Each structure stands twice: as structure tokens, then as C-alpha cells.
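Data availability excerpt. The first of two example chains:
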Amino acid sequence: MDTLLHAKTLLVQEVESVKTNSSNQNCINKAEHIINGESYQLVQQFLDQFGGRVNVTGDISASSVIAALEDFIRVEFPIVGHENEVLFLAIALLQTFIQNNYTGPAARSKAVSGLFGRNGDSIEAINKALVRSLAILGQPAYELMDDPLYLVLSLLLLEKITGQKSLFDVSLDQEVPLPIISAESTPGLLALAHWWRARALLTHLSLIPEPSGFQASVAAATYQSIDLVHAVVKDLPGGVDEGFKRQLYATYYLENVKCSLAINTEHLCLESLTKVKRITNFQFVMTGARATRTKYQQKAHAGLIILAKSFTFQDSAMSTKSVAPETFALESELLLEKPHFESIADEPLDEQIYGKRPKLDLDSGYEEDKLLPLALRQENIPESLRDSDPNGQPALSDFDNIQLILRLYTIKNTTPAKDPLVEEELTALLSRILYQDGKKNWSIFARSLWERSIIETTKAKTLERGLLQMQSLVEELDLKIKSKLIPNSNEINVASRLSYIHQLPFIPRWELDATLAEKYMSLGILKSAVEIYERLGMACETALCYAAVGDEKKAEEVLLQRIKENNLDARAYSIMGDIKQDPSLWEKSWEIGKYVNAKNSLAKYYFNPPAKSKIQPDLAATLKHLNDSLRQYPLSFETWYFYGCVGLQCSKMELAAEAFSRCVSLDPYHALSWSNLSAAYIQLGKLKEAYSCLKRAVASDAQKNWKIWENYMLVAVKLNEWDDVLVACKQLVNIRRDKSGEGSIDLPIIEKLVELLVTSDYSVEPEKLSYFQKSCTEFICNTLPQVITTSARCWRLVARVELWRKRPWAALECHEKAYRAIFHSPDLETDEQVWNDTVDACEDLVAAYESLGEMEGKFGPGSLVCKDWKYKCRSTIKALMSKGKGRWDDSPAWDRLMEARSQI
């Protein structure tokens, strides 16, 4: 029953059904406090009970404060037999920290002074020590956060419950064992504790500028396997609703995606998003419809729209009286508040979405397992969505709204910034969430408004509304802003704000404010941006702000002041190194905090030294610095990729193979990584492994990368995989034909394919032909003739295949084209080699006339391929002789022509 109670707490669901089956009323009350957004009451009870119990011995430092808290937990919180109560306290501490720093309004209580019982100066020092304890690999946590004690205590308690090694006292050179969760042997309550610890670690990671350290690895390992949920479900009492279990699985997959986004492994998101979509039976598709966007628009124009419908979990979360954030109106004399869509079936959807662009694959249909399933035609829209009213779609469940938001973040992280088409897709996603009727969850709605505002601030017509909306959302979090521009009138429901905070990517309140500052800076409003950064105490961001506008001297002054105040800020040293291009500053950053970006900067510096450094590239030093960086943060795809490229450049193939193997494990769909991995295997003599890698590369997003296809073809040739050689040849011609013409044809490979084809048995019955015969014939006889312009050699290959197909008339036509291709060469009368080649081609054509002319023709019995073949032979020779007379009539080739004419 304890597992069920904690599972309901995890999902933020009412616990009425548990009351009749549980004798532990105290735990039920704690669960209700947490679910109702009143975690701070449990925290206050804890502070009242243990006030003044923690004593720091010696100097106040991060290590001494952590040691004091660990001693306090060991004495006051025996875990064995009390896991249930201790876990509730850890959850309450975490939720209160999140309320104070992420969702607002802050729950006012004097946590540090209540627990440590020191005077004012000591309390301030302890608070700073707690902030320093949350630094990760030289990156300091945000210094002005509220009550860091709550998060530190929560993490320590969760480490104690799960029996995992503490990440507070681990040295930089140690290895941290990753949690192992078994579906069969891990108790459900322990699995839930691991789950909450992963949530706390993601909270911790959101406090630093860039994800790194063991926290990312431990969180990823926890969410790595579905066994986490299996372990919980197996311990739920019988009779638990199947829908409840499905919600646990859906929540797990949503948080799995959130974790991938948080640690920069967004390439892994699609699989989990696909699974949660199936669990919730969520139906949605992106398609096109004509829409009017302005008040005076007479003709509707094409636009993107998301059609979506929820089928489960509409009322899964505990209902709360939540007032959504205010949506600012455009107040535009021109623009409509939202697009008005016409009927989707008014015209072909391919024209609605893409205009009249050529080469659109209209037969691709509906592909479900994509970030944005796309329906190009009316008939491709899922039947359940086909009758949807684009201007009045039904409300979605919170689970499905979150899926759309997570897909939005995945698209943002995997596509170029400020791409107009991508912004249209993101706007369509956000519109589906924002313009639906029905009750709205504050966190989901506020996040959607925030993302819409970021897009709107890039457009002149919506800039004002976007900035106002961002300012409003920032102020609604109850920030310590002296003068608020927009008064808060909405009632605040803390439970609603906290209900889905662990499924949405974390954005701390100061990060929202910093993003607003970035927008001001991008608009040239430097003073307002700097004011926000200074109010937030973000010295590094202030320096970057000045550096971005070219004031590097001012940036250095800000960083020097920051280093003077905190000489352990490794990030400040590293940014100073980036501005000054000074390796000693990066070395200092690494020395004091093992800041991985410092090592990455050193690697780039030695790989491509600036001209003023007057040093030569040093690949050995580059590899050393990248190795140091990866030892501290092995989840960085970009660093592994750079490491592998340097390995290839300095011929360290084993190293390159390892690096690119790590790349493809982090992003299984990165075609260039697969291709580079194959290059390393080729150099190591592992052709089969290279071939497998290239198959993965061409199966990934590499349809336009001709180099990958060429490598694939060459390796397939060496392994005699002729079906794949043919596929690669066809793809190479399709990719390069527009730019390279017949240069896209690899003649030696084509000759080998033709040899294989014509030495096989031909059948006049198409169904008896093999796939290779059909495909190769279609390629040689249909595709190549569209590309060939001057290559007689190519035409002869086509002629061989036509003759094999028992089409001598087509073969003779190819021989004629081969001759004409070279006969019209402008160098015929000046270059003897061209003259000799033309005579050779003429002899070939004459021989073709002789051998093919009297065969049965195209129209069956009684017809000939070329009835007047002798006349054509004489005409061909005569035309060539007249062109060469006076210039080549004393050459050996001329004599050959004379002899050929005499033999006809």
C-alpha cells in the first residue's frame, strides 16, 4: 500500500481511494500536503522539530556544511524501517525548492537559520557554502537561488534511501557506480526513490549553465530502462486500475524525453515520444489548410495546422481550480488574434503546404513514427481526425499537451535556429495548445505562451505582444523586481503550477528573466539587458553581453571583478580565455574546477591556432585535451565527434573508431558519424564492419550526401554486394546529375554491373527476371540515357544491355548516339587523338550496322532492324572522311577508313 501511495504522489493524484485501505494516516496526510501544493508545511514541521540541530565544525565551507548535514541525517534519520517517511520528507523538500525557484510564489521560511541556529553572519556564510556545494565541474550554481538547503537535503536523503554513492563528496578522478534497477528484484518503493532522485538530479543540473558531471550520467542511467516502472507496477496491490499503470508508463516516457533534452542527447527522444503516443492513444498530424491571418484579407493562403484529438487521460491529474496566465491580445489593426482556417479539403494539400514546388513525393503517405507526422493528402489524414473542425478542435489531455511541447523542444534542439519553415511548424504546435477551449493547466499553458513569445519577438508585427507576454510571465513567478510593469491579478494555485513540473523541461525563474534580457540585447536594447543580468547577479552573462556587441574591454572588466569576488568560478576564467584567446586562463579554469568547456577551447586552440599565436597546429595536444574533457563529461556528442575527426586526421584509427562508436550510441541517426566510423574500419581492414556502418549511414538522413553513397558503393564492390552497388549507383546519379551531368556516372562500376547483367540468362517473361536484372535494366536503359551527353562509352554500355534484352533496334540506335556524341566534338579537326577515337567509333558503328541490320526489327516478323544498312555505312564513312580531308588524310586512321569503305 505504501508503494501505491507514493505512486499516486508521483502522479499528483488524489489519495481518497487509499485511505480506506491504509492504517498509516500520517503518511496519507503527508501525501495530501504534497499533492495539494503544500509541501512547505511538511518542511516547516521538519524545521520546527529539528531547529538548531545541525552544527558545523571548523571553518564554514562547502565540504564542512555537507559533512554536518550528513552527520545530522545519519543520527536523526535511520533509514531502515523508515523509508516511507524519509522519502516523503525528501519529496517535500524538493517540491518546496521547486516552488520557490521555478513556479512561484515563494513559500517564505527561514530554512538555514531554522536548521543551523547560527547568527546572521554565519547563516549567510552557510548559505553561500550550500550554493558552492551545488557547483558541477567548475560551473557554479546560480548564487541568488532561494533556499539551496532544501535541494541539498533532498539529494542527501535520496542518496541515503537509494544506497547510492554521494555526489557531493566524490573527487573528480573517481568513478561513480551507476544505479542498477531490476524489474524483478528492486522493491517498488526503492524504484520510486530512484525516480525521485533522478528528478532531483535534473533539478540540480538546471541550476548550472551547461549540463555536465556525474549528475547527468546518473539521471540518464535511471531513466535508461523501462524496468524502473516495471519494478513499481509489480508491487502495486491487486485491483489497481490498468489506466493508473498506463499513466505511470506514460509519465516515465515523458520524463525520459525531458532527461534527454536536459543532457543534450535529444537525438534519443523520438523513440520515447513514439511509445508514449501509443500508450495515451494520442492522434495528431500536421497538415495544411488555407487560412486568413489579417482582418482585411480577401483570399486565404496556405498554412500549417496540427489536427489532434485525445482519447485517454483527459481527467487523469487531480482537478484544481487553476487560473491560466493572461494571454495578451495582439491589439493589431491588421492581424487577426488567431488564423481562421477554411475547410481542409478545399484543394490538394500538397499545394496548400508547399505551394507548387516540383519533386514532391506525393505518395509518401502518413508516417506515424516521426516528430511531426505529416499528411500531404486528404486521404492520408487518420480517419479519426478527418472530420476535425480546424477552428474549433477539442481540448487535449494534459499528457498529450505535454507531448506536443516536448516534440517542440526536440525539434528546436535538432534543427537550425530561425529557420522560417521550422518556426511555422513550431507555431502550429503551440497554436494547437493555446487555442483550445476547456480548462488549462497553468504550467503547460504558461510554457506554451513563453515559447510562442520567443517566436513572436523575431517578427516585427508581433514583437510588442511577445515582449509584453514574456515580461508578464516573468513577473507572475513573483520575482524580486522592484517595479513591476504588469500587475498580477490572477489567483495563484500552487498545486496546478507544480502538477506537471517534472515532465516539462526545467526553466528556473532567473533563466526566464535572462532570456528576456537576451531578447532585449538582440533588439539592441543593451542597457535593459545589462540591468537584468546585473539584478540577477549573472556576471558571466553580462560579460558575454558586452562581448557580443564588441565591447571586449568592458567584458574583461566584468569578469575580472567576478574573479576577484569568487576566484573559484572556473566558468569565468574560461570565458575570459575565450575572449583573450589565452591558454593559461583555460588551464586555470581546468585546474580549479575541471570545467570541460575550458578543455574544449584548449583543444580547438591547438587544432587551429590563431595567427597571432605563431604556433603550429598540435594534434597530439588536441587529443589530450579532448580526452580530459570526455573523461569528465562522456555524454557530449560534439566533443566525441571532434575527437574522432582529429583521430582520423592523425591516422589513429582505433581512437577514431572508438570516438565515432560513442557518437552513434548517442545519436543512432547521425549519418556522418556512421560514415566516419566506416572510414576508420576501412583503414583497420574491417570491411564487413565498415559496410554495416555505411548501411546505417545511408539509412539515416543522408539522402543528399553523395560522398557517403560513393563510399558505400566502393565498399560494396569490394564485398561483391552487387545489389547494393546498383542501389548506390542509382542514388549517386540522382543526387549529382543536375550539377555534374554524366560526371555522376562511375563508368568502371557501371561496366562491371553491365558485365554481370549480360552474362546472366534473359527471360522474355518479366516475372522470371530477378530483382537485380529488373532494377539494373531500368537503370541502364531508362535513367542513364537521360544523363549521357558526350560519352560514347556509356552509349555502348546501354547498347550491350539492349542487345541482351533482344532489342537489336534499340542497341543500334545507341551505337548511333555513341558515334554522334564523339563525331560532333569541336576538337575533331585539331586533336589527332580525338580523330583516332572518332574513327574507332565509326568502325564500331559500321560493325553494328553489319551485325544488327538484318536482324528481326521492332515490328516483328518481316521487319528488319535497318534495311538500308549498307547505305548508312557508306554515308557514315563518307561524312567522316569529308570532315577529316585535308587535315588527317595522311594519318593511319585515314587508311583504316579507306579500307572499311572498300569492304562494304
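And the second chain:
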Amino acid sequence: MDPLAFLTDKQLLQFLRCSRTEMSCMLQPHTFLNQLRDHLLIPENMYKKLILIRSKELREKGVYQVLDWVEAKRPDSIKVFWNCVFRDHLLQQYPTLRLLRNRLLDGSFTFYEKLPEKVEKEEEEDTKKKASAEGEEEAEEKTGRKKRKPKKRSASAEEEQPSTSTQSTPSQKRKVQRLKYCSPFRKGEKADIWTWPIYKSQLPVTCGDKEGMLNRDKLAKGERCIVVQGRWFTPSGFEEFGGKKSHKNWKYSIRCRDTTLRELIQEGHLTSPDFKRRKSAQATKRALFPSNQSAGSITESEEDDGEEEEEEEEERQKREEGERGEQANTAGGESSTGVSHGVVKKCVFKVTCGAINGMLHKDRFASGSCGKSIRTELCWMTPVKFVTEGSALEDPSWKKDIQCDGKPLSVLIESKFLHIHSLLCKCKLCCSTVKDRHDEDNDDDCFICRSQGSVICCDKCPRSFHQRCHLPNVDDAILGDNRTWMCTFCVLGASQLWRYPKQITYQEALTCRISDHLLECQYLLLCLYKADEDNIFVTDPCINVRNYTSVIKTPVWLDRVVEKLQQNLYKTVQYFVSDVLLIFTNCATFNRDNAEFREMGERLKDLFEREFKSTFSIQLQHPAASNSQ
């Protein structure tokens, strides 16, 4: 991929303008000039004239004139110019070109600096005016005629006339008088101060009637980051200091001008401590499974964290609805990415390359090699890695070979749905640390409840879980351990062969002691929780469903099954299976006239029975034997 493709022609021209002097001082520039000549970037007569110069001073002046000519006469070929200048053989011969290339790509050269405007045209106009005036005087002397004297001006007119000691024209004079500080933004652009160079490290913020300075680096590290008259506050402490404690969400109550910190964090202008934690000791308030501790034992800080997460989940639920609709359409053989209409509404959509497929997440996408944005069944990949795994071509192109709705990924890029980050981008995806790259290997959302928060990352697969969403629940004592942690899905998959060296019958599986098969039961429950996206069978239906107890005499739900499993109330696998199947039997009985919910129950029942046979390695019965039973 061309590394200069991320820069505009205007930026490359500005870089040439600021680098002409350095390039003109290169020793023995003959190879450099030959390269420009080979690519038809300079005229033949200019090249021949310059190549014969022996004097060092004249040669440097000539090279400078050549570069000046390229900027003025070849602006449309500026990318061709830099591509041919940054060839390997030239970079090895000229250290100046190596330094320029590094400066361009590592971000040390900034394009937002506004250079002074040229005044060459005005000087030329002045010269023409003076020449015309002198010509008129000479003509008067020859003809003997004198030009009529102007009428005497008033005092006010004399005051407006510039002093005789200045040589500048009236237009130049007005320009000098109006010279003042200008922001790094062009006219018409929004002056967002959080992008100004002066606020690169600190940013003015307000909360209520209090004002302070926010340190960007301290915020990213999770430290006390807001200083007010020498006192340092955490964001929540500054929120309380500003009289907004009741809000309990500093991302909304703390603002920079009229923009909340939440918006700045979402747009990438600020970095806050990531909600994603690898074996973090923090717990979340929202949980699907009961815990041994009572509800009153949840700390106040956990409640605050839970409220923040709930607010974030509200926005995420909208995206999830689109994702579910897309998955449903994909299952029915229809595309829902909308590429054919030029509009893409999904943040997550299906992509394929050869024999493999995955889901591309827009919020993780940065470029072909930055940001692991494609999720397969086994891992997260960058687009380049994904196309390498799926394409059989010797030189695959991720923009062309990755397909979305039957069209190449370049369609999404051209429609500006996917934005390729610049090489100078300093975001977390483009300038990721070792820890960031390690975290990119796992999902940002909980695999079970599909919401964000402090999650535990499996070290063997891309899944992530809330502590209480995983079965068995993850204790805080395990979080501080640096040993490899594997989720129930991976543990069962790794032990399946030696746990069941031979197949058993369905009746033999039911008579097994539950204590010897907790892992299999926990896996089956996780599958049901994952499949029940709307949480229809999770909580007690007697609370929310009217007249439920009048129809169903023995109600049971998934949370209740988990509770009984944790309290060792099941003796054999048969009791566990009976309770799970009773959930779906009750659903069919209560929803005789509601086909939608009845079909939901049947779908989960089929999933449970299919996974049960696979998990316990149930041998397939002969049709004759099954009919005799």
C-alpha cells in the first residue's frame, strides 16, 4: 500500500515548499536529478543546463529552482514526485531524503501550521505601476507637456495617505494594520479548541460554576487529572466540587465549552480508562446470574459504575437491534448492509474472503494493518490478516478481495462509511501499545449479555465476560492471578476428548452424578443465555406475566436453575435436564394462542437437546430401536 495515499496533494505541496532548501543542499544531486528526468517531472533543457554546472553554489541554486518549478508547474504530479524521490536507492544515497521521509511519516512535521501568504504578485504590481509612472514622465519630458497637478486634498484625506517614509502600497499598509493572531483553522471551519496545538496537553473544562484544566495524559491513565487553583481532582471529584454530585456521571456534567467529555471521548479527542479490563478486580452491577452476596452488599462505587454502564448500554442497544436484524436477514439469504444503495446503516456487517467469513466492526477499523476489526469464530484479525488467511492469490489486496454484500470493501471506503486513518494518526488503534494490542484480541462486549462494562478476557478465544455472566462466576481472588484464564467454552472444548473417550447412551448420561458434570451443565446454560437475546426465559415470569400462576403450577426459569445448580440441589443430570425442559413445556402451555413466544421456546428447546447430545457424546440410536421405545 502506498504510504503517501493518506496525505492530500495540498499537504504534500506544503511539505515540498518547506523542504526545498534542505533538498537543494544535497551533495552530488546528479542521481536525484536523473530520477526526476526519468519520470518526466522536469523539462529536458532544464536538466541539461543544470547537469553541466560545476560550481557548488550555482548547483544548489539550480536544484532549488528546479524544485520551485516542480511546485509551480507540476502540482498535479506531487504524489508521483514524492513516490519517485522516496525510492530505496535514493534513500540509501541521500541521508537528507531519509530524514524527510521519517519526518513526514512519524508525525514530526505538522500540516496545521499556517504559512504566511505570498506577496510576490503585489510586488510585481508595484513594479509595473512604477514602470508605467516613469514611462509617463519620460513621455512628458519628450513632448514638453506636463501632467495636470492634482487638486489639493483636504486634511482628512492627507491623514489617510500613508507616510512618505514607507515604500508599501495602500493595500500592503492595510494588511499590516490588520495583522493579528489567527487560529489554525480556515475560514468557515469550526473552531474546536480541543484540537488546537495550544491545548495538546491540557484542556479547559467546566462543571457548574467551577473552572479547571484537564490533563489529557492523566485522564488516560485514570489518575487525578483536573487541577483547580493547585488542587487536583478526579473527574467524579471535580463533578462534586462543581455541585453536580447528584448527576453521578462526570462524562455528561463536565464540559469543554458546550461539548461534554463523553462526546470528546467517543470522537477520539480524549482517552479515558477503558471499560475493558483483562482480569480486572472491578465488578459490574448488571448481572444475569445470582451471586452469593446479598443485594445490599453492593458498594456505592459499584452502583455508580453500573449507572454509567447502563447509560452507555442504551445507545448500544440501538446498534444491537440493527445487528440482530442483519443476522436474521443473513440467515434468510438476504443482505442488510445496504451497499447496493450506497448507504450503509450497520456498524457491524458480514464480510467474506474466499472460504472464510467474519463480522467487520466499524468502530475497530483504522486501516488494512491497524485495528483488529474483523471477528471470526476463532479470533480477531486486521483486514490484511483476514485476506491473507482467506485468499489463495500470491499478492492479495484487502480492499478488493474482502467482499461485503458481493462487492469489494473499497465500495465502503469510497462511500466514506469506512474511514482509513492517516499514517500520522495518534489514536489508540494506530499507535497501540502492547497492552492495547493484547486487548484487541478479545471482544469489547460480554459474550452472554452483549453489553459493555468491566469484562474478563479469555486467553484462548476472543470471548469476554462479566464476572457474574460467566459460569462459574469469576471470583475476585482469581482476577489477581497472572496465570492463563480460560472460559467454560474453551475448557470444555479442550477436555471433550478425554472426558468422553467413547459414546454413551442418553439414559446413561441422565443417570450421571451432577457433581461430576458441572462443566457440561454450565456450558449448556451459557448456550441458553446466549440464545435468549430478549431475556424471555431468564427471570421469574410470575413477577411480570399476568395470570401466570393460574395456568402454570410449577414455574421455573433459567436464573432459578443456575441457583439450584450452585447450591448443589441437583443429584443427577436427569433432575437438571427435567427442570430445563420444564421451562419450555410451561412456555408451550401458557402460550397456546401466542405462536411467537411458543416458537421461541421450541427453538431454545431444540438448541438445548442438540447441545446436550453433543456435549455428553450421546450415541445415535438406530431408528428401529428408537421406534420400539
